[in-house]
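Listing S7. Sequence submitted for prediction.
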Amino acid sequence: MNDTLNDLLNGLGSAAAYSVVGLLVLVAGFVAVDLATPGDLRKQIWTDRNRDLVAVLASGLAANTMTVVTAILTSDDDLGKGLVDALGYGLLGVVLIGLVFKVVDLLTPGDLGEMVAHDDHHPAVWITVVTHLAVGAVVAASIS
């Protein structure tokens, strides 16, 4: 019984530590989208209910989550390695998503941030969503 309780407490501690790292990565992803788009992202999503920005933010958060989850799953029960990998690869994903956003912005006409911030269902929103998910998948697949 004592081993079972110890295992549970260790598991809960690990889950809490991974959750903190995951939260940090997701906050960084939120901040990156907020910086890449004009206006107050929180207001535009929660008050103005801008569905285009919801799709952009949600895809970025999903991509970052894929990376963090993959880092955890490949940690081989080594908590220290898993936490470092989850944070490192997670933040790498945030940076790469931001970089790809800027590259797409440079390669296409107009201001990509402005396009995705207006709730007029601009096709750029779907390109942004797909690039977010693609970067997340590539970063997650690179973890060994």
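Caption to Listing S7: primary sequence and predicted structure tokens for the chain studied. The mean pLDDT is 94. Residues 2-142 form one domain.
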